[in-house]
């Protein structure tokens, strides 16, 4: 008979309470400290030290206004790695196909990276002009539609240094960018026109997991000459609807109307890092 050392370990109430804290947050977020304490049948004064420890290890994070708790960056990295990434791509395939078919433009599934964004799946549109293979290319935040989604919903941080202007249309003024991020939170999707490169426009909408955390973005991109403002807004709406469909497959149970609600706690985060807007594509 094999010996199981774990069977001899006495139950640890603190470890059990910590596990319950994580389970409750991962099931649905944000949660207030009071709500969290009630759900795990503990006192807030007992839960607060556990939350602080989990926050130090990036397993939990507070909203910007310190009102609610969400999964931290370490937890989100784990969710996006390995099989999690493969599952995400598989669950997004149908919506990416619909996005490409309904718009005629290239559809991408994009995830946040430590220094920007990365496309992990792509379905080409029916046009040759504006078609690019984005898979594996790491791009910046303030000059891409997906990057602006991650900035707007608190997933990523602006660089600490001067924002790089890739074109004359790239938004590099932080106040203007902050206003735009507010609009993105209100309308539910981001747009760029000639900001990454001249002649390229794109839209992107957030993909949420069952805990309401933004873990990816669904994007459509194409030639600017095909995408005037009215059509770009239509693309944004289609991207939003298909991103909501992906989120539903991930266990996010909000209706599309609720999905569109403003997220007041997810504002532009503080800027601790530096980055170039466009980085060299990784060898494949």
Quick synopsis:
The chain is of the alpha+beta class and 284 residues long.
Architecture overview:
The chain folds into 2 domains: 5-71, Arc Repressor Mutant, subunit A, CATH 1.10.10.10; 77-259, 2-Layer Sandwich (Beta-Lactamase), CATH 3.30.450. With 284 residues, it is α+β, with helices and mostly antiparallel strands. It is built from 9 helices and 8 strands. Strands 5-4-3-8-7-6 form a 6-stranded antiparallel beta sheet, sandwiched between helices. It has helices at residues 13-27, 33-39, 44-56, 73-80, 83-103, 145-152, 174-187, 229-249, 256-259; strands at residues 60-62, 69-71, 106-113, 116-123, 138-139, 190-193, 200-208, 214-223.
How are the SSEs ordered, and which strands pair?
Blueprint: H1 13-27, H2 33-39, H3 44-56, E1 60-62, E2 69-71, H4 73-80, H5 83-103, E3 106-113, E4 116-123, E5 138-139, H6 145-152, H7 174-187, E6 190-193, E7 200-208, E8 214-223, H8 229-249, H9 256-259
- Low-pLDDT runs of 5+ residues are 264-284
CATH fold descriptor of the largest domain: Beta-Lactamase
Number of helices: 9
Share of residues in helices:
25-40%
* CATH superfamily membership of the largest domain: GAF domain
Proportion of beta-strand residues: 15-25%
Helix/strand order: HHHEEHHEEEHHEEEHH
Instruction: Average the pLDDT over all residues and give the rounded result.
Output: 82
